[in-house]
Amino acid sequence: DQQVKQNSPSLSVQEGRISILNCDYTNSMFDYFLWYKKYPAEGPTFLISISSIKDKNEDGRFTVFLNKSAKHLSLHIVPSQPGDSAVYFCAASEETDSWGKLQFGAGTQVVVTP
Amino acid sequence: NAGVTQTPKFQVLKTGQSMTLQCAQDMNHNSMYWYRQDPGMGLRLIYYSASEGTTDKGEVPNGYNVSRLNKREFSLRLESAAPSQTSVYFCASSAPGPEYFGPGTRLLVL
Question: Is A13 within 8 Å of A71 (Cβ atoms)?
């Protein structure tokens, strides 16, 4: 039973516009949430994270929002660039110190068009 | 600083053959992990090692064994490969903090 769900397998967005990726989870014990980006034939790379004590974390063009009551988080990319075309994975962890043993969503393929 | 390295990059096995996937990290991380990625499934944790000398099962450990050889190296062994183990395998490490992933090993079991 998948505890982290990304219901949109793909997303197409124009260059310069906002990309919004969504993620839902079922386990109320999750304390840390992360987004990873993956290019073909490469390993996932860490993008941004948020802990359950916050509702927003921003890093440059990337912002993650967390709504604990709805068990929902989202990743906003503004403005979208061609290099953002990749698969984005949402991940969550119960660990409070090691951030280990991540539960991953199935991923969302983002395509940024000129 | 190579980060997390994995060997081999690609392997074809016949059903019943055995093999060991190698992983090494040079970031002095305490924890190491093995995941598999299948289409439509995201990444699933096979085994992890919270620190040198310890290993524990993850979500999908059946058919696999691991060895934490030292702080740097964490290997994954398939004793008798099955077609269901066809997948892309990723090794990762963490400090604590976010996990850093290797480039993956693509395994095909015929």
Answer: no
A27-45 exposure pattern, b = at least 16 Cβ within 10 A, e = fewer: eeebebbbbbbbeeeebbe
Q: Which of B99, B100, B106 to mutate to test the interface with A (most CBs of A within 10 A)?
A: B99
Q: How many residues does chain A have?
A: 114
Q: CB A41 to CB B100 under 8 A?
A: no
A101–B104 CB contact, under 8 Å: no
Categorize the per-residue pLDDT at A40 as very low, low, confident or very high, splitting at 50, 70 and 90. Answer: very high
Tokens matching residue A21: 């990726």
pLDDT tens, position by position, B4-49 = 999 999 999 999 999 999 999 999 999 999 999 998 888 999 999 9
Length of chain B equals 110
